[in-house]
Design a protein that fits this description.
By secondary structure, the chain is an alpha/beta fold. It folds into four domains: 119 residues, no CATH class; 272 residues, Metallo-beta-lactamase, Chain A, CATH 3.60.15; 152 residues, Rossmann fold, CATH 3.40.50; 91 residues, Roll (Ubiquitin-like (UB roll)). 38% of the residues lie in helices and 19% in strands. The protein contains 20 helices and 25 strands. The strands form five sheets. An eight-stranded mixed beta sheet has the order 7-6-5-3-2-1-19-20. About 14% of the residues have low confidence.
């Protein structure tokens, strides 16, 4: 009986010790699972822990404190036996020669807390040492010089610089405003690029429209740098260079979409986009500073008239790789939705050709809209009509497009404009320039009965397949009015779908933002209202306001991985082209032209004695654009007497300085004419000594 009781006691003690050992292992293993705070040097030892320490460690590692307390209350004897057994387990056994297991290599909660505090102190000290000196990226910055195309439609001209290398993107012109009488075109100011000619690695053109290529001949006259573009773009540039006798010296390089151009440290990638002209591309400028996307003019057309649709996949890939900045077309930023496909125009033209049965069809469009011309030719072939081209630019562009394979005209369809009288009206289609109401364009001359080969009559069916460029609405309206006065039928955009834009609307602009995911955004190619609207679209998609830049001509922007900041402006502006003169017409000349156009001219001519200064003959008064002399003889006589008296007064006062004498005549005559007529004509005194 006693032996049996001793066995039970040994069994009970062993069970309790085993439970205590498991409990201690549980506490220690819980401490081992604590968050790792750096590395701990030296061997890890299992240490004796107090009941309180084990309770805290268990609480931290998920053992409920309340449950532990209940367990302690119910089994105090077991816990005591467990502690005794655990202590004895660390010592060598006196019986059987068996040693205890190796110590558990774990950290206690106290060690974890100490390590956590040590790491926090180290981080605080490191932050204190580096305060005010944030770590900067080792990448260089890229500078963007905006020399044209901002706050205006046209004259696109942008320069990118990185590590001393410069690349020019586009070099276009714009049409003169109403306050530029006599001016043919406006080109960018090349002063900045002339000063940095040795750093310019080349010019890359996005597409062949005048507002992107028109100023290339004027640039190459100053800097003979390489020019890169797609086949049609280079072909159109080559035609312009022939007019300026530059085609033999120019360095033109045909670069298809999808290829890369290495210009200094910058790798320029050409990406296919849709536009109202074939062979349009966007540019991905890969620089050491990062990738910058310059969209050029674009839209997203799922069913384009020629070529494939825009390469959205490549834009998405660039977005995944990382885009530093996006410079995007803003022309249609005010228009909601999507831009209509070119197929809409094709269907409209087909229905209009059916409607114009028996009438002569005259279609006015942009000379560069090759796809639009192809549609017209296809409709002419379908309805058995001959096609004639009118307008020098139309003939030149269509010739280049046909030669390069972008325009397909069946044999026998095209006829000379001088031969159109041999055909019945229902057998003809005339494709002409003048969709913008240009004063010297073919359609304008037809409207005002000034065209040598074409006379408008009531049997004409006229289609204006273009939208007026902002600022040209008035001139286009005047041409339409003159055509309607001649009792012919006129179809234009607002009344029929005869034109779709080549620029992206709001949803397409958002899609470009979503695909590229740029860090910085700069709206370009538009007036201030367009740029502001485009910036608003970007902010609506989550772009921070501080990462958006709305610039002006002459601004310089520095783009870096860590910042975007504006630098000092550079020389930029407008250079006026009048005939063969470039830049010789400035603000003073324009002021005089405007003055002449508003108030006319008065010329006072007289001869004086070289010795005495007295009037020998005259003065004679000549009026141009001021008053009709025959109906204002009394006014002219009074003006003549005034000039005579002024010269005599100068002679009496011994005033022999010609500039002083002329100024006196101007002052007196100007005051007199304003009192009589309330007009301020330009006064030009001419004095001759005899």
């Amino acid at each position: 009986m006693a032996e049996k009781e001793r066995k039970n006691n040994r069994t009970r003690r062993g069970t309790v010790a085993e439970k205590g050992s498991r409990q201690q292992d549980q506490v220690l293993s819980g401490a081992q699972e604590a968050p790792k705070i750096g590395k701990i040097a030296g061997p890890k030892k299992a240490e004796r822990s107090s009941q309180r320490t084990r309770g805290k460690a268990a609480e931290k590692k998920g053992e409920p404190k309340r449950a532990e307390a209940k367990k302690q209350e119910s089994k105090p004897a077991e816990k005591a036996a467990g502690r005794k057994k655990a202590e004895s387990a660390r010592k060598p056994s006196s019986r059987g020669g068996r040693r205890s297991q190796k110590p558990v290599l774990s950290q206690t909660a106290a060690q974890v807390e100490a390590l956590r505090a040590q790491q926090a102190a180290q981080e605080k000290q490191a932050a204190k040492r580096g305060r005010g000196r944030p770590r900067k990226s080792q990448k260089p910055a890229v500078k963007v010089y905006f020399l044209g195309g901002l706050n205006e439609i046209g004259k696109n001209f942008t320069v990118y610089e990185c590590q001393g290398d410069m690349v020019i993107v586009d070099c276009g012109l714009s049409f003169p405003d109403e306050d530029m009488p006599g001016v043919d075109s406006v080109i960018p100011d090349f002063t900045f690029v002339e000063k940095n000619w040795d750093r310019i690695r080349g010019v890359v053109i996005t597409h062949g429209h005048e507002d992107h290529i028109g100023a290339v001949p004027y640039l190459l006259k100053k800097l003979n740098v390489p020019v890169y573009g797609t086949a049609l773009t280079i072909g159109l540039i080559e035609g312009k260079l022939k007019e300026h006798n530059l085609n033999s010296s120019a360095k033109l390089h045909v670069t298809p979409a999808g290829s890369h151009i290495q210009l200094g440290c910058m790798d320029v990638e050409l990406i296919h986009v849709n536009h109202s002209i074939a062979d349009a591309v966007a540019l991905a400028i890969h620089s050491p500073a990062g990738t910058i996307i310059h969209t050029g003019d674009f839209k997203i057309d799922m069913t384009p008239a020629e070529g494939g649709m825009i390469d959205l996949a490549r834009f998405a890939e660039l977005g995944k790789e990382g885009v530093l900045a996006l410079l995007a077309d803003s022309t249609n930023a005010e228009r909601p939705g999507f831009t209509q496909t070119e197929q809409t125009v094709n269907n409209s033209l087909d229905s209009l050709f059916m409607r114009a049965e028996g009438k002569r069809i005259i279609v006015a469009t942009f000379a560069s809209s090759i796809s639009r011309v192809q549609m017209i030719i296809n409709c002419a072939v379908k309805y058995g009509r001959k096609v004639a081209l009118s307008g020098r630019s139309m003939v030149n562009v269509m010739g280049i497009a046909t030669e390069l394979g972008y325009l397909h005209v069946p044999d026998g369809v095209l006829v000379d404009l001088n031969m159109i009288n041999r055909y019945e009206p229902g057998q003809l289609v005339l494709i002409t320039t003048g969709s913008q109401g240009e004063p010297m364009s073919a359609l304008t001359r037809m409207a005002f009965s000034d065209h040598r080969q074409v006379a408008i009559n009531p049997n004409d069916f006229i289609i204006i397949s273009a939208r007026p460029i902002p600022g040209n609405e008035k001139t286009v309206g005047a041409v339409v009015d003159e055509l309607l006065k001649q009792d012919c039928t006129v179809i234009y955009e607002s009344m029929y779908e005869v034109h779709v834009s080549g620029h992206a609307c709001q949803e397409e602009l958002k899609m470009m933002q979503a695909l590229t995911k740029p860090k910085y955004f700069i709206p370009v190619h538009g007036e201030q209202k367009h740029l502001r609207k485009h910036a608003g679209l970007a902010m609506a998609m989550g772009m921070p306001r501080e990462n958006i830049f709305i610039g002006n001509i002459g601004n310089v922007l520095e783009l870096h991985e860590d910042h975007m900041k504006q630098l000092g402006d550079v020389p930029a502006g407008d250079v006026l082209v009048d005939g063969l003169g470039v830049g010789d017409v400035g603000s003073i000349v324009l002021r005089d032209r405007k003055h002449l156009s508003e108030d006319g001219l008065i010329v006072a001519v007289c001869s004086i004695d070289a010795q005495s200064g007295k009037v020998v003959s005259g003065p004679d008064i000549v009026s141009r654009g001021f008053v009709y002399v025959r109906e204002s003889e009394a006014l002219m006589d009074e003006a003549r007497d005034l000039v005579y008296n002024t010269l005599e007064e100068c002679a009496r006062n011994r005033v022999r300085d010609w500039s002083g004498m002329k100024q006196s005549i101007k002052d007196e005559l100007s005051r007199f004419l304003y009192q009589k007529t309330r007009r301020n004509p330009m006064i030009l005194p001419i004095i001759m000594e005899v």
